[in-house]
Structures are given as structure tokens and as C-alpha cells.
Specification:
- The structure holds two protein chains of two kinds.
- Chain A is of the alpha/beta class.
- Helices cover 32% and strands 25% of the residues of chain A.
- Chain A has helices at 46-53, 76-86, 102-107, 117-130, 146-158, 176-193, 204-208, and strands at 5-14, 20-30, 35-39, 61-66, 69-70, 87-90, 164-168, 197-201, 212-217, 220-224.
- In chain A, the strands form two sheets. A six-stranded mixed β-sheet of chain A has the order 6-7-8-3-9-10, sandwiched between helices.
- Chain A starts with a strand and ends in a 12-residue tail after the last strand.
- The longest helix of chain B is centred in the last third of the chain and has 44 residues, at 260-303.
- In chain B, strands 1, 2, 3, 4, 5, 6, 7, 8, 9, 10 and 11 form an eleven-stranded mixed β-sheet that branches.
- The chains are: A alpha/beta, B alpha+beta.
- Chain A binds chain B through residues 2, 47, 51, 54, 56-57, 65, 68-70, 74, 76-78, 80-85, 87, 89, 91-93, 95, 97-100, 108-109, 111-114, 116-117, 156, and chain B through 1-4, 6, 8-14, 16-17, 21, 24, 27-28, 306-307, 309-320, 393-394, 397-399.
């Protein structure tokens, strides 16, 4: 089975004297259908790891394979194509375009694939159905609650049926009940619709309900599929 | 490990969507869009107005010239070889009428004399007296504001026809009711008033009297100070030398033949310099508008960092991002251009209407206006678009970094 994502000995240096090792020889493999948590305090290299997994940044050395495709030799157009075709992003601050209807925001997930508009809208409505917001398709984001906005963002991430969904602190801006709902939704999408999801979080409560956790500390990862408890640094 | 094939991984944005994303930014900030477009609108409007007003006025003048006919020539005495004022032979007009290419000819004689309202009036009115015959109205295509003109019946009577300015200065509005004027204390009855005449503004300030009356009753020599000649329209240039030789066979060099419409046409060319200056000013306004667009677009790129980051995460290439902003700037500018065309046409229409002209704006000027707006907008968008495309996507998706 082709892994959804594979990192091989990935190192990312930021220029400085001496250079900062944001990632230091990271190996990571995520298989299709998996749901993992990437946990670590701020400054641990978590964000760098996310950027590299999402092809928004390139490693200084090492290989990044998305859905079996080596990204090292790809130009901007192909890396962008990889993002539009095989990756879905969910952000802490939702990143919805306020002036656009909900269904258009979701359809934007397919915009850069060269799919015609009516097909995009049809699939966007299906995705909204999945996240339970079919009735808000014509609403604009400012009229939605935080939890509803994040559902729209989730629909946008999964509308293209990506090999991997990267969720960056998806509950960071939500209250605990809404966070719970969002996590249940992600778990449901993983369990019943085969979505492969990596959740990046510093929130222990979020991390603890996910069976496989990657702990990031000082640019190194510690992969554990073992059940809790595991020692994790919690930021203030 | 799979090698990527181009088709599986290349990001693609349909042409329609390219325009759709480019235009989406404008609708979400209508107030700013309008204000920014206004800069371009004013530039285009001023250029269209300049071109529109000058071409409307020119069209009007040319129409007038056409109506008056460009086949009217003026034969005047020039200077003799010794620098003295030459004189036209008294039968010049009669001889000219015999030339085959001449349709008609009429002589006019300037007479010195003070025109006043009555014998007790000694105000200077600055009017001249011209003796002529009944052909003048036909040859010059004069129009009467009221009454009748000098003709075969009246040319031997003590009657006068006033030019438009002369009538105004003498405060005679109407030829009915028998108003009179005096010329050197001799009373003349006013039988008609002329309309203003574009080709012969000097006639507007004249009082016309009958040539036969001047000769027979006042004892004035009809030494024509000018002969107006209508020639065959297709043979104007060929007729000129013949006219001089016919008017004065002994010394044709002492005759000047000119075309009054040439002088009027030359006037339209003088205006060209002023028009160019105004156009240049409009161009400066347009450039300022372009700089305004570039400015707003730079601000827009900064404000929309997270949108740019999002689009990159969704798979937009750097090219998609830059084309989005170039299209947005070009659309903004074109909108301003269209607005400016409307304003310019409206301003021209209002001005032309107030001058009694008909509206004449060359279509090329309108097309050039839109094209200029489009080009300036696209150019103004280049720098902000490049800035947007170069944003680090990882950085841009981060909340307010």
C-alpha cells in the first residue's frame, strides 16, 4: 500500500549562526485511513513539520513523498498541483473568504484542479452534507458560528478527496463543547469515510483521544502507537 | 517510488475561473473599488472631453464651411510694382462673370462715411459702408434676419441693409416699421437686417447700400474694393490664375486671389496646440490614477495575505496568484475607464449642447480610452501581483505574522 505521506530523514535548517535545526532527521510514515496527532510545545518544530508535510516549505535535506510522489524535483506548478489534488488543509482561524457563499468557499477546494464550476458546486454540496451544513450552503461565513465555520473549512478540505488532510490546531479557536463536536466529526470522517487525517495540536485533551501520536521536541519526533499515558510537554 | 506525471500533479485554473478570482476582490469592497476607479475615470473623462469638444466644434465649423461652400474666391487689388495700392478696373466684375468656370461674381465698394442713427446723433458706431448690387446675397449666400435685401429693384433707391453687428449697435432689431439711419447726414431707409456670417465677419459690421444709387445719386466711383466669385467647385485651383488675368489683363500681378474659407480652416488648426496641451494634462491625470491603483493594490496584497496563503494551500501557483491581482487591477482600471467615458461623453454633450453643436466624438477616441485604461491597470498591477506571488505560502497562512 502506498503511504499517504512519507518523510525520510528530513532535516530543515534555518539560516543563522549557528543554523537553527528546526527539524533534525525526521522519519515519518502515514498510511491511508490513519488518523494521527502531531503534538508538541510551540517552538518544537511542529509548524515546520506541518509546512513540509503540506509542501508549503522544502526540507534542507531528506525526502518528502506525498501519495508516493517524490516532491524534491517538483517545480512550483507541480507542487501546487500536488496540494490541490492530494492535500487538504484545515486551519485554526478557518481561512474562509468572507464575501463568498459557504458553498463557494467549499467549492474553492477544487478551484485549482481545472474542474468546471457546476461540478465543483455539486461536490461542494455533497461535502456540506457530510459535515451537516447542507442547509447553510447559501449563507455567508460572517453569519456562522465558529464551529460552523470550521465545519465549512473541513468540507473544503475533504471535497477533493485528498490523500491526506492536515489540520493545524483545528480546535484552537473553539470552546470545549464545539471542539468536542469538531473532533467527533473528524473521527467520523476517518472511521466511516476513509479520510486520512493528521491533527497538529498542542492541546493534550485533543491528542489523548487519538491512538497514534507523534511527539515533536527540539526538531526530533517520537512516534508512538502505544496507548496513553505518554509524557508530553504542555505549553503554558 | 512513483515519478510524477505532468497531468496528475499540475495545478490548473480554468480561464473563466481566472477572471472569476480576479473580479471577486472588487465586489467585496465596492466603496474602495469605486474610489480607486475614480482616479482613472477623471483622467479618461478629461481626455474624452478634450477630444470630444474639439472634434464637435471642428465638425460644426466644417459643416458650416460646407454649407457656405468652399468654391467662393475673393479677388482684391494688391500692390503695384512700386508698392502703391493697386486698383481693380471698374469692369472687373463684369469681365469675371464671362469666365466659363465662374458661376457668378459680385463687386463690393467700400465707401467712407459715418453711419449714425439720425442727423443729430454724432456717436461713433465704428461701422463701414459698402456699396454693392443685388447679386451679393446669392454669391455670399447671405441670410436675412428680417426684411429684404439690396436687389435689382432697390439698388437704385436710398435704402440700406444692416449687418448683424451694425443692427445691434444702432439698436435696430427689425426692418419693419421703416427705421432709418443716416450716412454722412443723408437719410437711408433700412429695408433688411442680415444674419451673422461666419466667412465674412466684416460684413456684420457694415451697412450695405445699392451700387446704382451710390453711383447715380451720390456720385461715388464704383471702384470695387473686392469682387466675390463663385467658381465651378471642381475647378477651383485651375480658376485662380485665370481670375487674376481676367480681372486686370494689363497687370495681373496687381490682383490678389484668396479663398476666405482657407482662413477659417486655418483657425481650426491653431486650436490643435491647446488641444495637445489639454490631452497631455489628461494623460498626467491618467498616470496619477494608475499610481493610485498600484498603491491600493499593494495595500490590498498586504491585507489579503491570508487569502493568498489560503489559495496557495488550495493549490494556486505563483502564476495564478499574480494573474489574479493583474486581472483585478486591470478590471479596476477598465471600470474607471468606462466610468470616465460616460463622464466625458456627458460633459462633451452638455458643452456641445450649450454651443448649439451636434455631438461628434470619434469612436477611435473612445476605444483608445478603454484600451489605455486597461493597459495602465494591467501595468499598475504588475508590481503588487509580483509581490503577492512571492509571498511565502507557509508564512501567509499563519495568522497575522
Amino acid at each position: 500500500m502506498t503511504p499517504a505521506l512519507e518523510l525520510r530523514n528530513v532535516t530543515r535548517l534555518y539560516p543563522g549562526e549557528p543554523p537553527i535545526r528546526a527539524l533534525d532527521g525526521v522519519d515519518l510514515r502515514i498510511d491511508p485511513g490513519e488518523m494521527i496527532a502531531i503534538v508538541g510545545p510551540s517552538g518544537s518544530g511542529k509548524s515546520t513539520l506541518l509546512n513540509i508535510m503540506g509542501t508549503l516549505d522544502r526540507p534542507t535535506s531528506g525526502d518528502v513523498l506525498i501519495d508516493g510522489i517524490d516532491t524534491a524535483s517538483l517545480g512550483d506548478r507541480q507542487r501546487s498541483g500536488l496540494r490541490s489534488g492530494r492535500l487538504g488543509f484545515i486551519f485554526q482561524s478557518f481561512h474562509l473568504l468572507e464575501g463568498m457563499r459557504v458553498v463557494d468557499n467549499v467549492a474553492n477546494g477544487l478551484l485549482y484542479r481545472g474542474i468546471d464550476r457546476s461540478t465543483r458546486l455539486k461536490r461542494a454540496r455533497e461535502a456540506l452534507e457530510l459535515v451537516g451544513l447542507a442547509d447553510r450552503a447559501a449563507t455567508r461565513p460572517p453569519k456562522l458560528s465558529g464551529g460552523q465555520r470550521q465545519r465549512v473549512a473541513i468540507a473544503r478540505a475533504l471535497v477533493g478527496d485528498p490523500a491526506l488532510i492536515l489540520a493545524d490546531e483545528p480546535t484552537g479557536n473553539l470552546d470545549s463543547q464545539t471542539s468536542e463536536d469538531i473532533l467527533e466529526l473528524l473521527e467520523d470522517l476517518n472511521a466511516h469515510h476513509g479520510a486520512t487525517i493528521a491533527i497538529i495540536t498542542h492541546d493534550l485533551e485533543v491528542a489523548e483521544r487519538i491512538p497514534r501520536r507523534i511527539n515533536v521536541r527540539d526538531g526530533r519526533v517520537e512516534d508512538t502507537a502505544a496507548p496513553p499515558p505518554i509524557p508530553v510537554e504542555v505549553p503554558a | 517510488m512513483r515519478r510524477p506525471t505532468r497531468s496528475t500533479t499540475r495545478s490548473r485554473l480554468r480561464l473563466r475561473d481566472r477572471f472569476g478570482t480576479g473580479l471577486s476582490g472588487l465586489g467585496s469592497r465596492p466603496g474602495r473599488t469605486l474610489l480607486t476607479a475614480l482616479g482613472i475615470a477623471l483622467g479618461i473623462a478629461s481626455m474624452v472631453t478634450v477630444v470630444g469638444i474639439s472634434s464637435s466644434s471642428k465638425a460644426d465649423l466644417l459643416a458650416e464651411l460646407d454649407a457656405l461652400g468652399t468654391n467662393l474666391l475673393q479677388v482684391r487689388p494688391g500692390q503695384s510694382l512700386f508698392g502703391d495700392e493697386a486698383v481693380l478696373p471698374t469692369d472687373a466684375a463684369t469681365m469675371l462673370r464671362a469666365v466659363p468656370t465662374v458661376l457668378d461674381a459680385v463687386g463690393v465698394t467700400s465707401i467712407s462715411g459715418d453711419v449714425t442713427r439720425n442727423e443729430h446723433d454724432d456717436d461713433p458706431y465704428g461701422l463701414s459702408v459698402v456699396a454693392t448690387d443685388g447679386r451679393l446675397v446669392d454669391v455670399l449666400q447671405l441670410e436675412l434676419a428680417s426684411g429684404r435685401s439690396i436687389d435689382a429693384e432697390t439698388q437704385s433707391l436710398p435704402v440700406a441693409v444692416l449687418g448683424a453687428v451694425a443692427a445691434e449697435r444702432l439698436a435696430i432689431a427689425d426692418a419693419s416699421g421703416g427705421p432709418t439711419v443716416t450716412i454722412d447726414s443723408v437719410k437711408f431707409q433700412v429695408i433688411g437686417i442680415l444674419k451673422p456670417h461666419a466667412l465674412h465677419p466684416d460684413l456684420d459690421r457694415s451697412v450695405l447700400i445699392g451700387e446704382a444709387h451710390a453711383r447715380d445719386d451720390l456720385g461715388i466711383d464704383p471702384n470695387h474694393s473686392a469682387v466675390y466669385v463663385r467658381v465651378e467647385p471642381s475647378l477651383i485651383e485651375e480658376s485662380r490664375p485665370i481670375l487674376a488675368r481676367t480681372a486686370n489683363p494689363v497687370s495681373p500681378n496687381e490682383v490678389e486671389v484668396s479663398r476666405p474659407s482657407d482662413a477659417l480652416e486655418a483657425q481650426t488648426k491653431v486650436d490643435q496646440n491647446l488641444q495637445n496641451l489639454l490631452l497631455a494634462l489628461g494623460g498626467v491625470a491618467l498616470l496619477v490614477g494608475g499610481v493610485g491603483i498600484a498603491n491600493i493594490m499593494v495595500i490590498s496584497v498586504i491585507e489579503r495575505r491570508s487569502e493568498i496563503g489560503l489559495r496557495r494551500a488550495l493549490g494556486a501557483t505563483r502564476g495564478h496568484i499574480s494573474s489574479q491581482f493583474v486581472i483585478e487591477a486591470a478590471a479596476l482600471s477598465t471600470l474607471g475607464g468606462a466610468l470616465g467615458l460616460g463622464m466625458g461623453v456627458a460633459a462633451t454633450w452638455i458643452y456641445a449642447d450649450s454651443q448649439g453643436w451636434s455631438l461628434a466624438i470619434p469612436v477611435q477616441a473612445l476605444l483608445a480610452g478603454i484600451a489605455a485604461a486597461l493597459a495602465i491597470g494591467a501595468f499598475a498591477g504588475l508590481y503588487p501581483a509580483t509581490k503577492a506571488a512571492r509571498l511565502d505560502p507557509a508564512d501567509a497562512v499563519r495568522p497575522h505574522g
